[in-house]
Amino acid sequence: MSLEYAAGPRSLQILALLPAAILASPHQRRSGAAAAVAPRRRRRARLISFGVIGLAVGGSLLSYGFGAYFSIFPGSEWSALMLTYGFPLSIIGMALKYAELKPVPCITYADAQALRETCATPILKQVRDDVIRYRYGDEQHLDEALKRIFQYGQGGGISRRSAPTLQLIREEVTEDGKYCLVLVFKAKALQLSDFEQRQAKFASFFGPGIAAEIGKGEDDLYEVRLISQTTT
């Protein structure tokens, strides 16, 4: 079964480190067919940072503007205009780059891709789209959701510095043919029980029409499986 992967070079690096058994879909891992899996890149628009665009355009205008002002480059009559626009664009680009939150890798199995449009709930689609693009001004992906679920600084909650961080997402199909969006978190300061006791909160926050399952990965990784109850 083929894979779709997104979110730029970082996804390629992660996939390159994963063994074939992990790259296999859940059905293939259970059937022992992992060795036959080969990743396939799906053509899609490359994500570009607005901060990079601002710095590139602003820096180019500033460089050429200064060069034209000192007669190094032609177009001295335009130098003032290029400097006028180049400076603020560079400042905006630096500010966006500073506030930038990079997208997380997304691994999508072909059978899950086929089910996404018909079986994924609107909230699951929104979550997927939000975390695989650049964001600005957020401390981390799903920050508001994690704040409410883990109740930062409140009684029975956790401290903000112990909060889990989203590492990647995975789209797959369950044994009974349901669409599933898997959120993979890294949390060094938390235990599996910290996630399990909030299982109902995950289902409620990302619902309606969602069932949540909790799993433990390697090292400090934890999986939250959001399973759509919508069927074709």
TrEMBL record:
The chain crosses the membrane at residues 47-72, 78-96. Coiled coil: none annotated. Keywords: Membrane, Transmembrane, Transmembrane helix. InterPro entries: DUF2854. Pfam families: DUF2854. This is Thylakoid membrane protein.
